[in-house]
Amino acid sequence: MILRRAFHNQMDFFHGPKCYIGHDTTGVEGGCRTGMSADLGSSLALCEPHGPWAYLATSKSASGWALNPLLPQPGTVVRRVRGQRCQTTQTLLAEWAHAFGFPSYFGHNWDAFYECITDLEWLPAHCYIALVTDASAVLPHDEAGFVTFIEVLNSAATEWATPQEGEWARPAVAFRVLFRTDVAQEDHVCARLQYAGVDPSPMSFKGM
Prior knowledge:
- It is a single chain.
- The chain is built from 5 helices and 6 strands.
- By secondary structure, it is of the alpha/beta class.
- The protein has one domain: Barnase, Chain D, CATH 3.30.370.10.
- The chain has a 6-stranded parallel sheet with strand order 1-6-2-5-4-3, with helices on one face.
- Helix 3 packs parallel to helix 4.
- The chain is globular and about 45 Å long.
- It starts with 6 loop residues before the first helix and ends with a strand.
């Protein structure tokens, strides 16, 4: 059953006065290479519920999605979201619905997306990982939509990391999104994520 939260109170940015359309992120210097880069071999740290939710995963190919070190971990659900199929809001919502098996009544709007991605009772796990391949292709001509998308994911990660009591009791759950890109697009993807309000943690896919 869908979790009914005070969604609109958390997500009032949907209707706020922000105007991001036309903002040029190409000249923004990315800062995602600072700090320690996590290698895929240390992937168990991804499933710490109170760690960062967004990662910039750089590799030779932006479209690959091998996560072999993660797959054997019990209780971990890994899903690929194809960035090339997320170029408009409607195709993005459809791709995430396909990847996570949203129910047939999914409403294909941001409210419904938030409710489904914070429910997932049909896909029980203690750690959810979405690998977004070709991250530079996500909503490439819709900066306002991209900001909304990132803020929805941020709120979803916060919701999952908060233990629940009562009828819907559950422990804290890790919800992670890995934005995969190649080296050529790394700074651009990093700048878009930072402009949307998230500073992604770097992750390297060595040899991939």
